[in-house]
UniProtKB/TrEMBL annotation:
It comes from Hibiscus syriacus. InterPro entries: AB_hydrolase_3, AB_hydrolase_fold, Carboxylest/Gibb_receptor. GO terms for molecular function: hydrolase activity. Gene3D superfamilies: alpha/beta hydrolase (3.40.50.1820). SUPFAM superfamilies: alpha/beta-Hydrolases. Belongs to the 'GDXG' lipolytic enzyme family. Residues 17-126 form the Alpha/beta hydrolase fold-3 domain. This is ARM repeat protein interacting with ABF2 isoform 1.
Length: 136
Protein backbone atom coordinates (compact mmCIF):
# COMPACT_ATOMS: atom_id res chain seq x y z
CA UNK A 1 0.00 0.00 0.00
CA UNK A 2 1.41 3.37 -0.92
CA UNK A 3 0.36 6.99 -0.80
CA UNK A 4 -0.88 8.67 -3.97
CA UNK A 5 2.41 10.54 -4.31
CA UNK A 6 4.78 7.67 -3.46
CA UNK A 7 7.32 6.92 -6.18
CA UNK A 8 5.76 3.53 -6.98
CA UNK A 9 2.31 5.13 -7.46
CA UNK A 10 3.73 7.96 -9.54
CA UNK A 11 5.40 5.39 -11.78
CA UNK A 12 2.10 3.53 -12.23
CA UNK A 13 0.23 6.69 -13.17
CA UNK A 14 2.87 8.65 -15.08
CA UNK A 15 3.67 5.93 -17.64
CA UNK A 16 0.16 5.69 -19.10
CA UNK A 17 -0.19 9.46 -18.89
CA UNK A 18 2.97 10.14 -20.88
CA UNK A 19 2.33 7.39 -23.44
CA UNK A 20 -1.32 8.13 -24.15
CA UNK A 21 -1.62 11.88 -23.59
CA UNK A 22 -4.19 11.30 -20.86
CA UNK A 23 -4.68 13.25 -17.67
CA UNK A 24 -4.17 11.10 -14.56
CA UNK A 25 -5.45 12.30 -11.21
CA UNK A 26 -4.40 10.26 -8.19
CA UNK A 27 -6.64 10.32 -5.13
CA UNK A 28 -5.28 10.21 -1.59
CA UNK A 29 -7.91 8.55 0.57
CA UNK A 30 -8.23 8.28 4.33
CA UNK A 31 -7.14 4.94 5.75
CA UNK A 32 -8.67 2.60 8.30
CA UNK A 33 -8.61 1.97 11.22
CA UNK A 34 -8.53 5.70 12.04
CA UNK A 35 -11.13 6.30 9.30
CA UNK A 36 -13.30 3.16 8.94
CA UNK A 37 -15.23 2.38 5.79
CA UNK A 38 -17.26 3.84 4.16
CA UNK A 39 -15.17 7.01 4.67
CA UNK A 40 -12.72 6.02 1.91
CA UNK A 41 -15.59 5.22 -0.48
CA UNK A 42 -17.25 8.56 0.21
CA UNK A 43 -13.95 10.41 -0.11
CA UNK A 44 -13.24 8.87 -3.52
CA UNK A 45 -16.75 9.72 -4.72
CA UNK A 46 -16.34 13.31 -3.54
CA UNK A 47 -12.95 13.55 -5.27
CA UNK A 48 -14.38 12.22 -8.53
CA UNK A 49 -17.24 14.73 -8.31
CA UNK A 50 -14.65 17.48 -7.82
CA UNK A 51 -12.69 16.30 -10.87
CA UNK A 52 -15.73 16.38 -13.17
CA UNK A 53 -17.29 19.52 -11.68
CA UNK A 54 -15.79 21.96 -14.25
CA UNK A 55 -18.07 20.23 -16.76
CA UNK A 56 -21.20 21.31 -14.89
CA UNK A 57 -23.01 24.64 -15.05
CA UNK A 58 -22.17 26.88 -12.11
CA UNK A 59 -19.11 24.78 -11.32
CA UNK A 60 -17.69 25.37 -7.87
CA UNK A 61 -14.34 23.94 -8.99
CA UNK A 62 -12.55 26.82 -10.68
CA UNK A 63 -9.41 24.95 -11.72
CA UNK A 64 -8.67 26.31 -15.20
CA UNK A 65 -6.09 23.63 -15.97
CA UNK A 66 -8.68 20.92 -15.36
CA UNK A 67 -11.25 22.59 -17.60
CA UNK A 68 -8.63 23.02 -20.31
CA UNK A 69 -6.86 19.64 -20.10
CA UNK A 70 -9.61 17.14 -19.25
CA UNK A 71 -11.84 15.45 -21.82
CA UNK A 72 -15.01 14.77 -19.85
CA UNK A 73 -16.34 12.55 -22.64
CA UNK A 74 -13.57 10.04 -21.91
CA UNK A 75 -13.45 9.51 -18.15
CA UNK A 76 -11.90 6.30 -16.88
CA UNK A 77 -11.33 5.30 -13.27
CA UNK A 78 -8.98 2.71 -11.89
CA UNK A 79 -6.98 1.47 -8.99
CA UNK A 80 -4.52 -1.08 -7.71
CA UNK A 81 -5.17 -3.42 -4.76
CA UNK A 82 -7.33 -1.56 -2.22
CA UNK A 83 -7.60 1.22 -4.81
CA UNK A 84 -9.27 -1.27 -7.14
CA UNK A 85 -11.79 -2.00 -4.39
CA UNK A 86 -12.42 1.75 -4.10
CA UNK A 87 -12.79 1.93 -7.88
CA UNK A 88 -15.34 -0.89 -7.83
CA UNK A 89 -17.39 0.91 -5.19
CA UNK A 90 -17.13 4.20 -7.07
CA UNK A 91 -18.42 2.50 -10.22
CA UNK A 92 -21.32 0.98 -8.31
CA UNK A 93 -22.23 4.40 -6.96
CA UNK A 94 -21.89 6.00 -10.40
CA UNK A 95 -24.49 3.51 -11.60
CA UNK A 96 -27.08 4.94 -9.24
CA UNK A 97 -25.94 8.53 -8.52
CA UNK A 98 -25.21 11.02 -11.30
CA UNK A 99 -21.85 12.69 -11.70
CA UNK A 100 -21.76 16.48 -12.04
CA UNK A 101 -22.49 17.76 -15.53
CA UNK A 102 -23.91 14.43 -16.65
CA UNK A 103 -20.40 13.00 -17.05
CA UNK A 104 -20.40 9.25 -17.70
CA UNK A 105 -17.57 6.90 -16.83
CA UNK A 106 -16.45 5.31 -20.08
CA UNK A 107 -14.34 2.53 -18.58
CA UNK A 108 -12.33 1.26 -15.68
CA UNK A 109 -9.29 -0.82 -14.81
CA UNK A 110 -8.84 -2.83 -11.65
CA UNK A 111 -5.32 -4.16 -11.06
CA UNK A 112 -4.87 -6.84 -8.39
CA UNK A 113 -8.21 -5.93 -6.76
CA UNK A 114 -8.32 -6.50 -3.03
CA UNK A 115 -11.69 -7.65 -1.75
CA UNK A 116 -12.05 -9.16 1.69
CA UNK A 117 -15.36 -10.56 2.86
CA UNK A 118 -16.49 -11.66 6.27
CA UNK A 119 -16.46 -15.31 5.15
CA UNK A 120 -13.50 -16.93 3.33
CA UNK A 121 -14.13 -18.02 -0.26
CA UNK A 122 -12.51 -21.15 -1.66
CA UNK A 123 -8.91 -21.41 -0.50
CA UNK A 124 -8.91 -18.03 1.26
CA UNK A 125 -7.61 -18.05 4.77
CA UNK A 126 -9.28 -16.29 7.68
CA UNK A 127 -5.80 -15.08 8.58
CA UNK A 128 -5.24 -11.85 6.60
CA UNK A 129 -1.48 -11.82 7.20
CA UNK A 130 -1.13 -15.36 5.80
CA UNK A 131 -3.08 -14.39 2.69
CA UNK A 132 -1.04 -11.22 2.13
CA UNK A 133 2.22 -13.17 2.48
CA UNK A 134 1.01 -15.62 -0.18
CA UNK A 135 0.37 -12.75 -2.58
CA UNK A 136 3.89 -11.30 -2.26
Amino acid sequence: MAAAFASVQLSVSSKPSSRTACLVISIEYRLAPEHPLPIAYDGCWTALQWVVSPNSNGASNKEPWLSTCADFDRVYVGGVSAGANLTHNTLMRAGSDALHGGVKIKGAFLARPYFWGSNPVGSESKNMEETENRLR
